[in-house]
């Protein structure tokens, strides 16, 4: 059975994917927040701008880059979820950089740094008021989850394994 774009207010079961939406109370405009149940997405080895309809709610596989790659998030929507996982076959010699649309859309939270040299396990936090970029330096592995807190900010948490600590910054 295909229900098309029918809107439900209760629980729904799907044999394919499920899309969470938000509806503007004033204009009635529908915005896709997340897609659930679909397979992972392999991100490109190059700068890429993400969107909620295709990327939120799915595992985002980050390649072993040929250069530093910047992945730009869309404007935050409460409940949107972006889960970045390093999918390279070896430690990367380049960085993965995940940015918001701008400094007014900043990160709240931090990640755990696991040093492959074996001499450090620490937490790296955003400043909670303007840091809109996280740089995952030469990763051997990472799993970083970014969740839309509201229409302004993102929560961030996860783990990064590398010889060099990740860094939050303003853009």
Would you kindly provide a written description of the structure presented here, covering whatever features stand out?
2% of the residues lie in helices and 44% in strands. The chain is mostly beta strands and 171 residues long. A hairpin with a 6-residue loop joins strand 1 (18-23) and strand 2. The model has no long low-confidence stretch (mean pLDDT 90). The N and C termini lie far apart (47 Å). The chain has one domain (18-169). The strands form three sheets. Strands 3-5-7-12-13-9-10 form a seven-stranded mixed β-sheet, with no helix packed on it. A five-stranded mixed β-sheet has the order 4-6-8-11-14, with no helix packed on it. It has one helix and 14 strands; from the N terminus they run E-E-E-E-H-E-E-E-E-E-E-E-E-E-E. The longest helix is centred in the N-terminal third of the chain and has 4 residues, at 52-55.
């Amino acid at each position: 059975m295909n229900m098309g774009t029918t809107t439900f207010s209760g629980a729904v079961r799907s044999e394919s994917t499920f899309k969470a939406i938000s509806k503007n109370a004033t204009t009635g405009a529908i915005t896709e927040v997340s897609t659930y149940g679909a397979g992972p997405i392999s991100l490109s080895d190059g700068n890429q701008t993400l969107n909620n309809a295709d990327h939120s709610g799915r595992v985002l596989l980050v390649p072993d880059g040929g250069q530093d790659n910047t992945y730009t998030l869309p404007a935050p929507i409460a409940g949107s979820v972006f889960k970045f996982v390093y999918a390279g076959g070896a430690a990367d010699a380049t960085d993965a950089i995940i940015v918001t649309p701008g400094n007014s859309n900043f990160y709240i939270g931090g990640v755990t740094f696991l040093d492959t040299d074996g001499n450090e396990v620490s937490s790296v936090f955003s400043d909670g008021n303007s840091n809109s970029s996280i740089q995952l330096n030469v990763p051997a592995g990472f799993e970083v989850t970014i969740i839309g807190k509201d229409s302004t900010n993102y929560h961030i948490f996860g783990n990064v394994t590398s010889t060099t600590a990740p860094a939050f910054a303003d853009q």
